[in-house]
Every structure is written in structure tokens, then in C-alpha cells.
Amino acid sequence: MIDTPAYKALKAHQLSMRERHLKDMFANDAERFDKFCVEACGITLDYSKNRASDTTMGLLMSLAQQSGLKARVEAMFAGDVVNTTEQRAVLHTALRQQHDTPLLVDNVDVIEQVRQTLAKMKQFCHQVHQAEQACFDGQAFSDIICLGIGGSFLGPKIVYEALKPYHLNKQQLHFVANVDGSHLNSVLSSLDPNRTMVIIASKSFSTQETMRNAQTVKSWLVDAIGEEGAKSHMVALSSNEAAVASFGIDPQLRFPMWDWVGGRYSLWSAIGLPIALAIGFEQFEQLLQGGYDMDQHFLTAPMEQNMPVIMALLGIWDINFWQVSSHCIIPYCHYLRGFPAHIQQLDMESNGKSVTFDGKAIDYYTGPAIWGSEGVNSQHAFFQQIHQSNAIYPVDFILPLSLKNTSETHHDMLVAHCFAQSRALMLGKTTEQAYQELKAQGLDDERCHALAPHKAMAGNKPNNVLLLEDLSPRTLGSLLALYEHKVVAQGFIWQINSFDQWGVELGKQLSGPIHRRITIAEDDGQFDCSTEALIARYLKRKKSSA
Ligand code: F6P
Predict the structure, then answer these.
(1) Average pLDDT of the chain, as a whole number
(2) Closest residue by Cα to residue 257 from 319, 190, 200
(3) In the annotation, is 231 catalytic?
């Protein structure tokens, strides 16, 4: 990336942009919104409040072209091995393909595999809803515990929350990820094992935390309804057929996954079964349709009108040319309160990397720290820092224009606050303006001069506003795919592998010996003095509370 002429031109261009303020760019160009706005798949992206000019956008598009973005995207969609360290294709897009054109991976048509799994999911949802797939005693399930972590948890859970107005309420779903027993125990104590299904979502079926939780739930079921009874209450979503069988799950109740679907991109696969059970398979198909709509946009729209590409490039502009290190996601919508956490894993587990595809050390920043929470709450929590600290925190405001279960009065206020925050970040307030406001309030001159600097805001703070026509499964599917493609496009431009996650391996490796020391006092060598002291402190407390 940094060897491209566009990168060098952007470095020089940024120097010229440093002195410009967004409020002046708006004052000097009444067409700015029209120039920096793109619509696709029920989403409107207003990117006019970025510190970018026509020249900026042109140079960023050149960076994408010179980085070979288009060819890499097409290779991914075609099933090429783009996950080079794991030697895998990356085909979460195949999960939502809306036509039957074959796609071969190792000479197997993955589209046929997807179709068969979707058919199995559809039949299962129908059977559970009709109590044809029922409890061991033939009664309908009342509750479903969904065990999983990372991509096997976040995607399904946030979509379940986001689509609450579409819930059929046939069963209540309970998502559990943490191995902290206090969560699982609070769920189990509230449920009846005779009426509860457990879905164990784990592509590897070896993730320690999920398997610990799964064993605890299995024991809970077996204690109540016996080994045989429990068999009809346990479902697995996994690529590991052998591990699922040895756990004691009926092979008929395993829904397959494949290596060419990464965990953080997997909600469209069988991992999405909880979503389909909650909203019905037909609505789940609408979610897939929305993802497909955005796939087509990403593949066919010219770069200058390509929503994921524009968001990707503006992120690169912030990170690599303004040294910004985080990106804030603020959905102005309670149903989307979990969305930032899903994007955290999607973005940070994909692009938190430091070597290129071919293993060369990187000397530029890549993926940002993703954070955020629901608006308007965040205005009363951390927006102070975004407005008045010297650091820059680019914000994505996400706002459904139309929402179920709200009222015009409430939505009007939510919308007004969202737009006001975006405007305030762009506009700021000068010390002089603050001084005049204080004077107008009748404060004496000395007090006005003393207070004004504290009330000034720099403004010129970059932010995007994404307007959703509604929060339907289809529009939500497009929004989720939009961020997937933004992350992938950035990774391709940064020349990194966005599809592996070797960085999580060390922690897993180190937990084993520590766990053995804690549980069976196995002494296979000394840890560092901090870890030794921490373990000793825990064991002492454990002994005292025994
Ligand atoms: O965090 C590492 C990771 O492998 C994620 O990529 C994945 O989503 C999560 O753990 C769960 O993995 P599995 O679905 O195999 O249990």
C-alpha cells in the first residue's frame, strides 16, 4: 500500500487538508451532501462530514485501484484460497447466494451444500414450531439455550435482539457465552429441563468455554430426563462431526458448517439457526436476501458509488493519514444496542494484524479499535470526550428512519438528537461564540472570559450517518454485509489476511497449565512471579471460601 503513488500523494494531500475545517467546506459548497452521499440496499450513507474533498476521494479511489482491490474481491467471491495461512477459501457470501450457480471448493459444489443445510434448517424450524420436533415426552419446547462464543454467539445474539418485533415467540431464547458460571447458572435456575432445548454452536466443537458450558447443560438435562431423554434436547451447529457424535448428540440434530466460513462471518450459516427459530425461516431468508443485495452492490457498483469501498477508504484515510486509532459505532436504536460488539469482533479479529499476506512486518497501522454503544445513551456517557478531547474518534451514526413499536413523538426526538450530534461534531463552537453566548446570558465580562475556553469545541470531527429505511431482516442483512465488506476491503488494501486469527492462540495455550495448577496443583514449572502470586492469591481465597 505505502509503495503506491496514491499513498504518497495522499500523504502530501493530507498536509493541505490539515488547515481546512469542515464547517468551511459546508459553507463553501451547498452541494456537499449531494456529492458525499450514496444509497444502496435501503441504506443511505452520508459521508459528507469527513475531512475529505473531491481530491481526497479521487486519491483514495486511486489507492484502492493501485492496491488491486477489485481483483482480490472477485477472487474471494469466486472461492479462491484468499485465507492463505489456513489455505482456505472465504465464502460467507455463498451462504446467502440467491441463485444456484455452482461454486466449487475442492471439486465440491458448496452451493448445493448450503441449499441442503438451509432445507434442513427450514424443516427443523417448522418441526420445532409445530412440536413435531419436541421434548422427550412429546411436549413442545418452551425455551432454547444457545451456547457459543465469539462468532458463534455475537452474530446470532445481536440479530435476535435487533429483530425483536419479528419474533414468533414460540420459544424463549437464552444466549450464554461466558464460562463464568454465574450467567449459566442464572439461566438454568430459571428453566425447566423437561421443556428446554440446548443448541451448542461451535464450528470447532473444541472451544474450551463453550464445551464446559455444554457439559454442564448436558448434565442438567441428563439429571432430569436421563441420557436417552437428553438426546432429543441437544442440537449441534458444527463442522466437527466426530466431536459432536462423541459428545452424544444425535447426528440428525447436527447442522453442518464448513472451513470456508470464518466464525465472525458465520451468522448466515447454520450458526444462524437460533435466528431462524426466533423469527421463522421465511424471515431468515429475508436476512440472507439483504446480505445478497449488498454482495451484488459490492461486486457491481463503480468504486466511486460503492458503499463498502467508500467506508473502507475513509477508514484508511482516518487511520493511515490522520493517525486515528479507533472507530466508534453508535446505533441510535435500542434494538441495535448489540451491533457495536459484533462489529468489534468482525473488524478487530479480522484486521488486528501486523504482517502482510506474505509474512512481511507491517510499518503502518491497520484495523482500529472498535467501540460504541446505543445512542442517545452515549451522549450522557462518553460523548464529552469525543466533542472536547484533542483525540479524534470517527463515529458511524446508524439510524433506522422507521421503527416498529415506537411512537412519532419518541422517534422525532431520537432522530433530532442523532442529527444534532453529527452536526455538533462537524461544527464545533469557537471560544468567541462561547463568549458571546455567555454574554447574552448576562454573565459579567470576567466570568465570560474565564468560562469561554471551557465551552469551546474544536469541531471538525469526522462522522458518517447511515440511514436505514427500516429495521427489517432484509435491511439488517444489508447492513451486516456492508460492514463485512468494509472490513474485507480494508484488509485487501492493507495487504493483510483478514480471515485468520492466530493472535487468540497464545492465550488459549497458556491457560492450560495455569488451569491445571489451579485445579490439580500440577507443578509443571514456574510461571512468572506475577502469575505465581495471582494463582496463590486465588487459591488462598478459594480455600477460605470453601
Ligand atoms: O476467538 C477465536 C474464535 O475461533 C473465533 O474466531 C470464533 O468465532 C470463536 O473462537 C468460537 O469458535 P467455535 O465456533 O469454533 O467455538
Answers:
(1) 97
(2) 200
(3) no
Helix (H) or strand (E) holding 45: strand 43-46
Out of 85, 152, 209, 271, give the residue to mutate to test ligand 1, the one with the largest number of ligand atoms within 8 Å of its CB.
152
**Each residue's pLDDT tens digit, 257-273:** 999 999 999 999 999 99
Q: How many residues in the chain?
A: 546
Q: Which amino acid type is present at position 481? A: A
Contact 334, 399 (CB under 8 A): no
The residues, ordered by sequence, that sit 6+ positions from 519 with a Cβ below 8 Å of its Cβ are none
Pocket test for ligand 1, best of 267, 269, 501 (most atoms within 8 A of CB): 501
pLDDT for residue 521: 84
Residue 125 φ then ψ, to 5°: -60, -45
- Measured CA to CA, the distance from residue 240 to residue 166 in angstroms comes to 32
CA proximity to 336, closest of 161, 156, 155: 161
Long-range CB contacts (within 8 A, 24+) of 442-451: none
353 is an active site residue: no
Average pLDDT over residues 326-331: 98
Q: Which atom, in ligand 1's list, is nearest to the CA of 264? A: 8
- Helices marked H in 375-444: 383-388, 408-427, 431-440
Judged against a pLDDT cut of 90, whether residue 544 lies above it is answered with yes
Compute the distance from residue 232 Cα to the ligand 1 centre, in Å. 26
Query: pLDDT digits over 290-319, tens only?
Result: 999 999 999 999 999 999 999 999 999 999
Q: Per-residue pLDDT tens for 430-474?
A: 999 999 999 999 999 999 999 999 999 999 999 999 999 999 999
**What is the structure's pLDDT at 429?**
98
Query: With contact defined as beta carbons under 8 Å apart, do 275 and 160 qualify?
Result: yes
CB 387 within 8 A of CB 456: no
Cell match 462561547: residue? 434
pLDDT of residue 523: 73
Four-residue CA torsion sign, 279, 468, 296, 351: negative
Residue type, 108: V
Phi, psi of 531 (to 5 degrees): -65, -40
CB 479 within 8 A of CB 468: yes
